[in-house]
Specification:
The chain folds into two domains: 92 residues, no CATH class; 188 residues, Tumour Suppressor Smad4. It is built from six helices and 20 strands. A hairpin with a 4-residue loop joins strand 10 and strand 11. The N and C termini lie far apart (54 Å). Bound molecules: zinc ion.
């Protein structure tokens, strides 16, 4: 048997046991980890004989560990029966993608040290030469990052950010590579269009400037796909005449290649639909709901220019 302990366990022990803990670690060969999940799951993935004893259903790990849903029998929780312990199935079952996404996000936001108040604010980078400051209205189109002291920083230049008002209605989009590994999560706010493309990310996301650019990113056009959050909360997508196209995989449609979007024609992206760009990256709407207002309390902002695309396609 292998014991893996989250380091938070030590802090929960009664004082007397905490003193004995280092000796127990030694004696039992306990593996200590800051976050035990990240040790347990790869071990179990690589050893099909291994059982995982935990009450956690690891919902936020389902994307990285799709095998979990295929092997619910390997996940056991425990129940005390008087002096004895019974091991029972922990109740792992397939979970819908938006739930997986929401659980993962809650952890990521927590890990990044970003408070809800930070997510509710629109930010602008103070460095005039920074890519983030070259957006249409100087607004940072990605989430800010937190430094070691918890201060909000620009994800491009790590410089300080200025608050420029409350966010309006916001959803989050998830960008993945074709294997489904997440590359980036980014906000989309009503009235601020986001373009996914290659090169300088002036109006959105430059796929080739990500920390780990996906394979075949050269196939993505400079201005590939426009995304817009409509006032009714739906997300609209428009292929901007890209060379290698955008395909939509509708939820519930038979698995396969999807349907290619007509260029310059708007489609509504449902909660479970997936877009694939040039067979290099995919994008979908995250299940996260943001507790943001409609921004009407903020008066310092003019309406952004809108691109001339709003007629709905039939795809
Ligand atoms: Zn910056």
């Amino acid at each position: 048997m292998t014991f893996v302990a989250d380091t938070s366990l030590r802090d929960r022990l009664p004082d007397a046991d905490r003193e004995r803990w280092p000796a127990l670690v030694e004696e039992w060969g306990v593996v200590e980890a800051a976050v035990a999940d990240e040790v347990i799951l790869p071990m179990a993935r690589d050893n099909a004989e291994m059982m995982v004893l935990s009450r956690d259903k690891f919902i936020d790990h389902r994307r990285e560990h799709p095998w979990i849903e295929d092997h619910p029998e390997r996940f056991l929780a425990w129940r005390m029966n008087g002096d004895s312990i019974a091991f029972v199935p922990s109740g792992v079952k397939p979970e819908p993608r938006p739930l997986v996404s929401r659980e993962k996000e809650a952890k990521l936001v927590h890990a990044a040290g970003l408070a809800t108040a930070v997510l509710r604010t629109r930010w602008s980078c103070g460095d005039p030469y920074c890519t983030a400051a070259m957006t249409r209205e100087g607004e940072l189109l990605l989430w800010p990052v937190a430094d070691a002291e918890g201060r909000v920083r620009c994800p491009f230049c790590e410089g300080p950010l200025a608050a420029i008002g409350p966010r309006r209605q916001t959803k989050q989009l998830v960008l993945c590579d074709m294997a489904g590994a997440e590359l980036l999560r980014f906000p989309i706010e009503a009235g601020v269009d986001v373009v996914i493309g290659r090169g300088r990310a002036i109006y959105g996301v430059g796929v080739d400037s990500l920390p780990a650019p996906p394979e075949r990113h050269g196939r993505i056009s400079r201005q590939h796909l426009l995304l817009r959050l409509r006032p009714d909360g739906s997300v609209m997508a428009v292929d901007l005449g890209s060379a290698n196209g955008t395909r939509i995989h509708r939820a519930g449609a038979p698995a396969g290649d999807g349907v290619r979007l007509e260029p310059h024609t708007a489609v509504t992206l449902g909660g479970h639909d997936l877009l694939s760009l040039a067979r290099s990256v995919s994008v979908y709407v995250s299940g996260q709901r943001f507790p943001v207002g409609d921004g009407r309390t903020w008066s310092g902002r003019s309406e952004p220019p809108r691109t001339e695309i709003e007629s709905e396609g039939t795809t």
